[in-house]
Amino acid sequence: xxxxxxxxxxxxxxxxxxxxxxxxxxQHIADYCEISVGNLAYHYRTKDVLLKSIDQVIQDDINxxxxxxxxxxxLIDFDNQLSNYFHSINKYAFYFLDVLELERCYPExxxxxxxxxxxxxxxxYTWIELNVKNEIIKPKLSDNQYQITSRLIWMTISFWxxxxxxxxxxxxxEGLFKEEIWNHLLPILTENGLLEYxxxxxxxxxxxxxxxxx
Length: 214
Description:
- This protein is mainly alpha-helical.
- The protein has helices at residues 3-19, 26-33, 37-43, 47-65, 75-91, 93-97, 99-105, 107-133, 145-158, 160-166, 174-185, 191-213.
- It is 76% helix and 0% strand.
- The mean pLDDT is 91.
C-alpha cells in the first residue's frame, strides 16, 4: 500500500491511539493528513470501511505473531515473543483499549479479535506443554491448570495498557510488562527452568529497567 491510502491509514491509527476510537471522525483524519474530507472519502467512503482496512493490517501483524510455524524451545524464545506482543500493543493501542467500542459497534472486527485471542491462548498453552516435556516447567497439578495459566497470561498481555492507564502509570515500560507475565510462570518453573531464568531472562529484565530509568 502506497501514497495517500497509506498516509490516511497511518494517520487514523495515530489518532485512534491518541484520542480513542469513538472520538475520531473522518474530518479529523483529513485535517491531520492536510487533505479534504472528500479526498479521504474517495479512498475510504466511511469510518467503517477505513476500520476494516486497518483491521486487515492488524490481523496480518497478529497472524505473523501467531503463526503455527513459530516454536519456542527455550525461555528466551518466549521472552522475545513477549517483546513482539508489547510492541504490537503500543502500535495499535486503540485496538486493546477500546474493546467495548469494538464489541458494540464493529462486530466483524470483534469476531476477528476473538479468533486471535483463541489462537494466542493456544500458542501459550502449547509452549507451556512443550516445556513440561523439556522439564523446564513442572507437571500440572490438575487437568486444567495450564489452560488457566495460559488465559491469565493472555489477560495480562491484552489488558496491560488498560490497567496501566487506570493506575496512572507508564504504558511504555517493557520491563514491567514482561516481569508481570513472568511472575505467572516463576512458581511453575523447575529447578532447571529457574536456572535458565536467572541466567538469561532476569538480566534482560534488569537491563530494560535500567534503560527506562536513564
